């Protein structure tokens, strides 16, 4: 389904909320060439938007479809079986990444994820740490579903939902979904003469899903239905979603100025509230770490991450990604200062207690992160909660 051009004017304009980090999902219909393979016809404008954002001090992670289309272009085949599509995805990954690298003035990093990578806590933290480090290094992460092995996800064609997961993974403030339609309409815009643009959705309901009835066309494997599913997941994580036409250069350029011509699907609640509430109230038992006064002040006053240099002692046994408690060493009241998700298991953490972050790799032979608990994975407890 392709509706663009006058969609810009039909949807008018509305301001995007301020954001520092975004996930941009680009569908196959924006990358696939008419004669097979990939084209930069629309991707060039999207890449220019990403470059403009970077110049403004913002960070963007791309979730890109197109690998299967690229594989089809290499072999000139219309094969559609599951195993065939998996093989085409493997063949198409390289040209898909090459397309984004050609359009980017910074290094492009390929990150392949499956839903298992976010279900498993250890792999979730690995993916989270890798994406954060790539952004810190100034690279452009391009994420795709690991279609070669992700059987169920490939059948669902769920890069829309994967984009919502990635948005939560990197603590993005906004999810931007570029598609070949101007936004959400009250009905199918090519079949319903009474269909009208829906510029804003405050809550996704059964009626909202009825508006999205229809297929994804010959190339895409999702459609408006999966985009609403993704927006619903993002909203639950406190992340708003913008649906817009990635084929309209003016619409894409307007995003750089903070203006949306499309549909805004509002978030509800605080972006980090659910995770913070869980960390605050979940029972963490007796496992945890004791820290010195300097680290305690850095956590409580400056909102800093917990570094190994501030850790005095490790209590109990725990694995990477477990919820642990942070206490002040020598405090007779054993008051809990904070709770958080730890980046190293108890055995490895004991080896780096009191050491500088730069020494982690030389001691352990690897380094997941420079912090023991990253500030985004840590909640400082008020005194009345910590007693």
From TrEMBL:
It is found in: Cytoplasm. ATP binds at residues 25, 179-180, 221-227. It comes from the Bacteria. It catalyses: L-glutamate + ATP = L-glutamyl 5-phosphate + ADP. One of its GO terms (biological process) is L-proline biosynthetic process. Pathway: Amino-acid biosynthesis; L-proline biosynthesis; L-glutamate 5-semialdehyde from L-glutamate: step 1/2. Its EC number is 2.7.2.11. Catalyzes the transfer of a phosphate group to glutamate to form L-glutamate 5-phosphate. This is Glutamate 5-kinase. It comes from Montanilutibacter psychrotolerans.
């Amino acid at each position: 389904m392709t509706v663009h051009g006058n969609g810009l004017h039909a949807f008018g304009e509305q301001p995007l909320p301020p954001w520092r980090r975004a996930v941009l999902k680009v569908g196959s219909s924006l990358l696939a060439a008419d004669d097979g393979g990939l084209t930069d016809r629309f991707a060039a404008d999207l890449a220019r938007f990403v470059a403009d954002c970077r110049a403004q001090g913002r960070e963007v992670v791309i979730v890109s479809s197109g690998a299967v289309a690229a594989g089809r272009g290499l072999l000139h085949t219309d094969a559609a079986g599951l195993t065939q599509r998996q093989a085409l995805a493997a063949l198409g990954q390289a040209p898909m990444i090459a397309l984004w690298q050609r359009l980017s003035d910074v290094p492009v990093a390929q990150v392949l994820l499956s839903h298992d990578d976010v279900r498993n806590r250890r792999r979730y933290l690995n993916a989270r740490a890798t994406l954060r480090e790539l952004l810190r290094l100034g690279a452009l992460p391009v994420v795709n579903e690991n279609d070669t092995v992700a059987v169920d996800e490939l059948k669902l064609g769920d890069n829309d939902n994967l984009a919502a997961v990635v948005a939560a993974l990197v603590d993005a403030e906004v999810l931007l979904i570029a598609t070949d339609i101007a936004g959400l309409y009250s009905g199918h815009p090519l079949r319903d003469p009474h269909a009208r643009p829906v510029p804003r959705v405050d809550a996704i309901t059964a009626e909202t899903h009825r508006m999205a009835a229809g297929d994804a066309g010959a190339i895409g494997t999702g459609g408006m239905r999966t985009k609403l599913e993704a927006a619903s997941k993002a909203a639950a994580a406190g992340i708003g979603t913008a649906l817009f036409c990635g084929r309209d250069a003016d619409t894409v350029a307007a995003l750089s100025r903070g203006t949306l011509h499309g549909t805004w699907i509002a978030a509800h609640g605080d972006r980090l509230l659910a995770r913070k509430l869980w960390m605050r109230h979940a029972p963490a038992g007796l496992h945890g770490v004791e820290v010195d006064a300097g680290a305690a002040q850095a956590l409580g006053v400056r909102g800093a991450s917990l570094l190994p240099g501030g850790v005095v002692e490790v209590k109990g046994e725990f694995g990477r990604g477990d919820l642990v408690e942070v206490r002040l060493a020598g405090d007779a009241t054993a008051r809990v200062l904070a709770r958080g998700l730890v980046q190293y298991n108890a055995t490895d953490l004991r080896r780096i207690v009191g050491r500088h972050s730069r020494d982690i790799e030389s001691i352990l032979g690897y380094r997941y992160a420079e912090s023991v608990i990253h500030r985004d994975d840590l909640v400082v407890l008020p005194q009345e909660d910590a007693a």
